[in-house]
């Protein structure tokens, strides 16, 4: 459990440039096996890298476990409502998000909207002497998410402010000028001012017919959650700006590094890049109108593209794991994980398992041809 009070916090927060599992986890897996205990920031934590046990655990939301956030993350996106909303809020959030970002919206309109924005951005990149992929994708993603979520294109360069903001999660939450956490909290406050202003403007004249003059309805995600204020106990005028901020942050700080990694892997793997290029050139060649936009059938035909995406996501592993709080004693292999402990579930142990993936640290999109054939359910 490490030193008194601080436990093994310093080792856990140490940075690593490897795509392999964090050295903190790797060392303890070798020493103790797939389930071990530690102490992080004064909290007892059980760490599981056992795929079968993890699968069981993730079916126990609201029974044995509930969502839990590190103190630094809670303070980053915190609102008083968040500590009381529980699993029901996250089920509501997932359902509402899928209705605007899921399969049907993607097929109906988002695919063409994404293509237009991305093409515009790529043309801008051609005028740059060099491109920092992560930094350049941030404003593009922020503008896209802002438009879909709340039909708003910010005049301020807030997308840039969100770049690398999640790094504050893996730091001590010390609100002292000069620290990473302090700088990120300042950026958060700037973003909350924007989302609060948009919510306030949307709520004015919201209760109206769409055809009425001055009606603020846009048919976007914000319309849905504003309409649910009063119907759902956790949705309030004060809470919604924090919700929008959290969604914008999640979009920028997960997709941007993923695109960056995919770019890096492809540049380091000429064979995969060639296969990807040939797949897309074939789509263009088969078009009757070379200038027509991407259609759903073309998107679904991108087999090797899907392999590249799957392989990138397998290797990505942006965060060390998924945190849950134990709300009832859990018994496993003769041990007890006590109520009140924190549980860290490690998907990376499955993603980087050499018994499942040959040369797990190697970028090899073609491996998915075998997996998708052997496990048809992965195709969805």
From TrEMBL:
The keyword Secreted does not apply. InterPro entries: Cyt_P450, Cyt_P450_E_grp-IV, Cyt_P450_sf. The keyword DNA-binding does not apply. Pfam families: p450. Keywords: Iron, Metal-binding. PANTHER family: CYTOCHROME P450, CYTOCHROME P450 26. Belongs to the cytochrome P450 family. This is Cytochrome P450 87A3-like.
């Amino acid at each position: 459990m490490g030193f008194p009070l601080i436990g093994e916090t310093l080792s856990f927060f140490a940075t690593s440039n490897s795509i392999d599992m964090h050295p903190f986890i790797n060392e303890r897996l070798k020493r103790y096996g797939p389930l071990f205990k530690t102490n992080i920031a004064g909290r007892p934590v059980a760490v599981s890298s056992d795929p079968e046990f993890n699968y069981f655990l993730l079916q126990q939301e609201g029974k044995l476990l509930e969502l839990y956030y590190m103190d630094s993350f809670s303070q980053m996106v915190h609102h008083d409502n968040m500590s009381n909303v529980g699993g029901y809020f996250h089920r509501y959030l997932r359902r509402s998000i899928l209705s605007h970002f899921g399969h049907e919206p993607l097929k109906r309109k988002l695919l063409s909207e994404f293509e237009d924005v991305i093409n515009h951005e790529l043309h801008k990149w051609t005028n740059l002497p060099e491109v920092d992929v992560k930094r350049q994708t941030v404003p593009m993603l922020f503008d896209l998410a802002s438009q879909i979520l709340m039909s708003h294109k910010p005049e301020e360069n807030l997308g840039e402010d969100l770049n690398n903001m999640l790094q504050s999660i893996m730091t001590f939450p010390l609100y002292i000028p000069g620290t990473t956490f302090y700088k990120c909290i300042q950026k958060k406050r700037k973003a909350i001012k924007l989302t609060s202003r948009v919510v306030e403007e949307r709520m004015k004249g919201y209760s109206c017919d769409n055809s009425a003059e001055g009606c603020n309805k846009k048919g976007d995600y914000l319309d849905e959650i504003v309409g649910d204020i009063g119907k759902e106990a956790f949705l309030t005028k004060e809470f919604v700006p924090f919700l929008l901020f959290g969604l914008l942050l999640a979009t920028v700080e997960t997709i941007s590094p993923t695109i960056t990694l995919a770019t890096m892997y492809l540049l380091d793997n000429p064979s995969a890049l060639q296969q990807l290029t040939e797949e897309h050139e074939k789509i263009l060649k088969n078009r009757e109108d070379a200038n027509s936009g991407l259609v759903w059938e073309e998107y679904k035909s991108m087999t090797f593209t899907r392999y590249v995406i799957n392989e990138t996501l397998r290797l990505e592993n942006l965060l060390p794991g998924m945190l849950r709080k134990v709300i009832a004693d859990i018994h496993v292999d003769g041990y007890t994980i006590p109520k009140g402990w924190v549980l860290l579930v490690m998907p990376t142990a499955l993603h980087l398992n050499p018994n499942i993936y040959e040369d797990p640290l190697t970028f090899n999109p073609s491996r998915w041809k075998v997996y998708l054939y052997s496990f048809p359910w992965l195709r969805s």
